[in-house]
Amino acid sequence: MRRVTTAAMIGAALLLAGCSSSSSSSSTANSSTGASAPVTVRLGLLSNITHASALIALKNGYFTQALGSAGTVKAAAFSSGTEETTAILAGQLDAAYVGPNPAINAWQKSGGKAIKIVSGAAAGGASIVVKKGITSAAQLKGKSLATPSLGNTQDVALRYWLKQNGVTTTTTGGGDAFIKPTKPNSAAVLQFKSGQIAGGSEPAPYDVQMVSDGGTVLLSEPGVTTLLVVTQSFLSAHPDIVADLVKAQVQANAFIKSNPAQAQADANAELATYTGKPLSASLVAASFKEITFTNDPDAASLKTDADEATSLGLLKPVDLTGIYELGPLNQALAAGGEPQVNS
């Protein structure tokens, strides 16, 4: 499986944005037999423990097993869901593990034509962490705080929480508290440790690292954290392959539930192929403890995320009707004797 860097993916986005024929997945029909050649599924994910389902499905070959001779997965790691949205809209990805707000943004920017949510993956696993001694939002006035990117799930969560507590922010870093979109997430950890920022809203393992560096959790962010989305064009062309992707996702979460220690080791090993080195086992274990790995995409939570982003002026009012395609997920859940979900 060949890894593709984020820089290469995003750097090519503008060149390929208008070329639908060249940006679609490779699948050609054999003229003599009518059979289709194997499809290459371009899959995006983030180098976070909140994306452990994807990491494990890649590491343990669940995608490979599910697709069989029908196709292969080519995975690429991104620094933020905002970058993934850019790649999706530029025709660079067929499927992606993303947070709820990037999924909503892709839906709205495309007029409801870009993506479908086909499964959940994780809930929880992100926190607002601040320096010790800070116990309220009011104490963050005049302080700098990091988030992965403007408008991403953790960014919206932090801004909304501050707003609810009477602390203003602006998209340009002004207001009462100064929000600094910072990437990669590890840079925010270093800035926190060195005292350049007072805290931040980060996904695991980065929030856990900030706590280990002396931070205090002000808010454990609730709701869905990671979703599996596919482009509508890919779903239309390859519904069976989408069903296989979902089957592998369900298998990965089942493995996490039945073999947590091995799941942690496997996720860490796969993560290291993107970041260059593994995390400490204790850091991964602590990250897993704050995450609920669930295939339920939690439609109520997604609506809340959209409402919060809209209230902040980061999103125009959006109708999410039709954003889900849960047929393949419910088939996979039924096959495993698990309860079905709805939108």
Q: If you had to describe this structure to a student in words, what would you say it looks like?
A:
- This protein has 343 residues and is an alpha/beta fold.
- It is 43% helix and 19% strand.
- The chain contains 16 helices and eleven strands.
- It has helices at residues 6-11, 13-16, 20-23, 52-59, 62-67, 81-89, 100-109, 153-164, 185-194, 206-212, 232-237, 239-258, 260-275, 281-289, 299-311, 327-335; strands at 39-46, 71-78, 95-98, 115-124, 126-131, 144-147, 178-181, 199-203, 215-220, 224-231, 291-292.
- A six-stranded mixed β-sheet has the order 2-1-3-10-4-11, with helices on both faces. Strands 7-6-8-5-9 form a five-stranded mixed β-sheet, sandwiched between helices.
- Helix 8 (153-164) links the parallel strand 6 and strand 7.
- Helix 9 runs parallel beside helix 10, helix 12 (239-258) packs across helix 13 (260-275) and helix 13 crosses helix 14.
- The chain starts with 5 loop residues before the first helix and ends in an 8-residue tail after the last helix.
- Residues 1-24 and 27-33 have low confidence and may be disordered.
